[in-house]
UniProtKB/TrEMBL annotation:
CDD domains, alphabetized: UBA_EF-Ts
Name used for this protein in its record: Elongation factor Ts, mitochondrial
Primary role: Associates with the EF-Tu.GDP complex and induces the exchange of GDP to GTP. It remains bound to the aminoacyl-tRNA.EF-Tu.GTP complex up to the GTP hydrolysis stage on the ribosome.
KW Mitochondrion (keyword) present: yes
Native species: Basidiobolus ranarum
Family: Belongs to the EF-Ts family.
Domain of life: Eukaryota
């Protein structure tokens, strides 16, 4: 539209509206706005095509979001990545707040183990994480799987800082403080060669919620201790995951053995501990020993103990009860071995799933009223 047409329009409209004007008080603001708009268009940053393609390939964000990141960062690729990270966390936090009330009864159990030998001795620790989402579809997403294993890596590396022994009695496995863990820096995926740490565990969860669009809840975390007990036993930790790969699945277990002597057969002990973890996953014991068991009055005692006490269960690979197998294994090693503790997590246990609504039945019931 030309300036003359604007001026002519004003000549017609302002008398009808009862307004007065001068060329200075009318035309100057219009000219300023036009020149400002033209200046902005001339100075606007256009996203670099090659950087745009690279950014989308690396981050999987939409075209619009990738363009916005490059424009905001003036085509500085590293700054664009930082902007996307901050934007993802912010938008994820908003979405997490909206989805917080939705039931998350699916998910994954993630296991990470550390069995390493150095000049200071052998370290054998493990962490088990129960991370929930709303659907099995999302639990099979690679982003969700990586988040679960990164959280378990974080719990493992921080160890007693997030999972202290809160009781006076020594415990080989402790529940982690979810608050402490969520505020901790999210460590890289175990298989990752990158050492970069980006944000906290809570921010990682929020970012994943923003990308996947489902409520995600960190339900529980268990960490084994690397510190010997008062008996000075060497601790051996192993675990087992069922229903997935070696890091994530639907059921998982940690088992810690105590060994009286410093033995060279660490690999053999690891294998034995793993077999016991498989026993825990498959047979779902509730107690380690009879002394800890609470037997209901209306159930035969012996039957209950054989089903629910780990040491009383028949060993899945034969050879008698778990107690008998451990004792025989101790004789083979010529050193006392005992099970100190175990923990078992199963996805969705203890969560009441919402009842699916039959819409046809609901409509029919409404019509009958």
């Amino acid at each position: 539209m030309s300036m003359n047409r604007v001026w002519n329009g004003l000549n017609v409209l302002t008398p009808r509206l009862g307004l007065t004007y001068t060329s200075a008080n009318v035309m100057l603001p219009i000219q300023n706005r036009l020149f400002s708009h033209m200046s902005c268009n001339l100075d606007a940053v256009k996203p670099n095509i090659k950087l745009l393609a690279k950014l989308r390939q690396e981050t999987q964000v939409s075209m619009t979001k990738a363009k916005e990141a490059l424009v905001k960062s003036e085509n500085d690729y590293e700054k664009a990545l930082e902007w996307l990270q901050e934007d993802a966390i912010a938008s994820g936090a908003k979405k997490a707040e909206k989805l917080a009330g939705r039931t998350a009864s699916e998910g994954l159990v993630a296991l990470v183990l550390n069995n390493s030998t150095s000049e200071f001795g052998t370290t054998s620790t493990g962490a088990l994480v129960d991370l929930s989402c709303e659907t099995d579809f999302v639990s099979r997403n690679e982003l969700f799987q990586q988040l679960a294993t990164r959280i378990s890596s974080t719990a493992l590396l921080l160890g007693q800082d997030v999972a202290p022994n809160s009781s006076e009695v020594f415990k080989a496995i402790n529940e982690a403080s979810l608050e402490s863990l969520q505020n901790a820096p999210l460590m890289p995926h175990p298989s990752s060669t990158e050492a970069a740490i980006e944000g906290t565990v809570q921010e990682g969860i929020a970012e994943t919620i923003g990308k996947l669009g489902e409520n995600i809840v960190l339900r529980r975390v268990a960490v084994s201790t690397g510190v010997s007990n008062e008996s000075g036993e060497k601790l051996i930790t192993s675990g087992y995951i069922h229903g997935g790969d070696q890091n994530t699945g639907k059921i998982g277990a940690l088992v810690v053995l105590g060994v009286a002597e410093k033995l060279e057969q660490s690999e053999e002990l690891q294998k034995f501990a793993r077999q016991l973890a498989r026993q825990v996953v498959g047979f779902n014991p509730k107690y380690l020993s009879e002394s800890l068991a609470i037997v209901p009055e209306d159930v035969p005692r012996q039957e209950f103990l054989e089903q629910n006490v780990l040491l009383n269960q028949g060993f899945m690979m034969g050879g008698g009860s778990v107690q008998e197998v451990v004792e025989n294994y101790s004789k083979t090693l010529n050193s006392k071995v005992r099970i100190l503790d175990f923990v078992r997590y199963e996805v969705g246990e203890g969560i009441e799933k919402p009842v699916a609504v039959d819409f046809r039945e609901e409509v029919m019931n409404q019509l009958k009223k």
